[in-house]
């Protein structure tokens, strides 16, 4: 018999129950918290910037968006028409393939420039098709009354004010 082995007649020693304790946590690493506090907002900002950059390649501009107004302004400037304001602009119809718009904008001389324009996909880029015409300044009923008075008085204009 060896000294390492227990005698055959002796029963094995009972296993003692241990008291329960929560599992030990990894040591606190403050740089992980800092990375999370800074990393999550940085990722969110990067995602927004990326979306804005890709948005023009994914979605057609709306009729009253800044992109549409800038494009319309470039077209009207080439035609030597510069309206006082770019409003009112109406969306005639809108789908994922085409956005149809209409705008009647006042000119400094009292006329109106009417633009019908459509944004559509040309391959992978948005393109614009447009028609533009100018309407002359309309005479008001006051102008017609003064014209009738001029004719009645032999062409001599008198001021009523």
Detailed description of the structure:
The chain is rod-shaped. The protein has helices spanning 30-58, 66-78, 141-152, and strands at residues 89-94, 98-106, 112-122, 125-135. With 161 residues, the chain is of the alpha+beta class. A hairpin with a 5-residue loop joins strand 2 (98-106) and strand 3. It has three helices and four strands, in the order ααββββα.
Distance between the termini: 137 Å
Number of helices: 3
- Give the tally of β-strands: 4
Q: Identify the CATH class of the domain at 66-135.
A: Alpha Beta
Order of helices and strands: HHEEEEH
Please estimate the helix content: 25-40%
Summary?
The protein has 161 residues and is α+β, with helices and mostly antiparallel strands. The protein has helices spanning 30-58, 66-78, 141-152, and strands at residues 89-94, 98-106, 112-122, 125-135. The protein has a four-stranded antiparallel beta sheet with strand order 1-2-3-4, with no helix packed on it.
List the helices and strands and how they pair.
Layout: H1 30-58, H2 66-78, E1 89-94, E2 98-106, E3 112-122, E4 125-135, H3 141-152
Antiparallel strand pairs: 1-2, 2-3, 3-4
Give structural attributes:
Nuclear Transport Factor 2, Chain: A, alpha+beta, 4-stranded antiparallel sheet, disordered C terminus, 161 residues, 3 helices
């Amino acid at each position: 018999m060896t000294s390492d082995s227990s005698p055959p007649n002796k029963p094995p020693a009972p296993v003692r129950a241990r008291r329960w304790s929560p599992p030990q946590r990894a040591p606190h690493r403050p740089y992980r918290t800092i990375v999370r506090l800074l990393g999550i907002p940085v990722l969110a900002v990067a995602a927004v910037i990326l979306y804005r950059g890709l948005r023009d390649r994914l979605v057609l501009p709306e009729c009253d968006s800044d992109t549409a107004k800038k494009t319309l302004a470039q077209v009207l400037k080439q035609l030597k028409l510069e309206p006082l304001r770019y409003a009112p602009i109406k969306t005639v119809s809108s789908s994922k393939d085409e956005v149809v718009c209409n705008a009647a904008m006042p000119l400094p001389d009292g006329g109106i420039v009417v633009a019908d324009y459509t944004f559509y996909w040309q391959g992978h880029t948005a393109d614009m098709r447009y028609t533009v015409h100018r309407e002359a300044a309309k005479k008001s009923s006051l102008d017609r009354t003064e014209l009738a008075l001029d004719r009645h008085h032999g062409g001599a204009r008198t001021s009523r004010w």
